[in-house]
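Input sequence (151 aa), recorded before submission:
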Amino acid sequence: MITGVHHVGQIVEDFDSALTLTEDAESRDDAGSGDGTDPAVRMVFTEIPDCQFHLIAREKRGTDIDPLLDSLVAVSPYHVAYTVQNIREAIAGVEAAGFAMYDSEPTSGLGPYERAFADPETVPRNPFRVRRANRLNPRPYHSGQLPTPLL
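Predicted structure, token format:
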């Protein structure tokens, strides 16, 4: 079912300080940023060998993803995104294993791909999500390129 790790994400309160630390990290390769049209949520995606690191900060409340961010932060500021070939089969597999899904159907947002979060309160480790593999471009963000706004 899982074909790889797409990214590890962290939700932070102080985006600028966390970004400075990320920028100072050796071998940083900026992979772009998230939805640049929503000033309430700031994101940067950084390439690391074989996956990405996503830094996410909510500057203010009032976005469509407030409930998701609240649920994630209540359990852990970190999440892992696994790449799968068939997202609907992955959702069914998670549910068959006895875990609830936060997103019962694939959804868009937080990047130009389909994703589905497991319910953070039901998983026995860090929150995770599944992401459909993108056959044309497994790493959708590149320096200087912003994705099509989806939120």
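Checked by second reader. The chain has one domain: 2-132.
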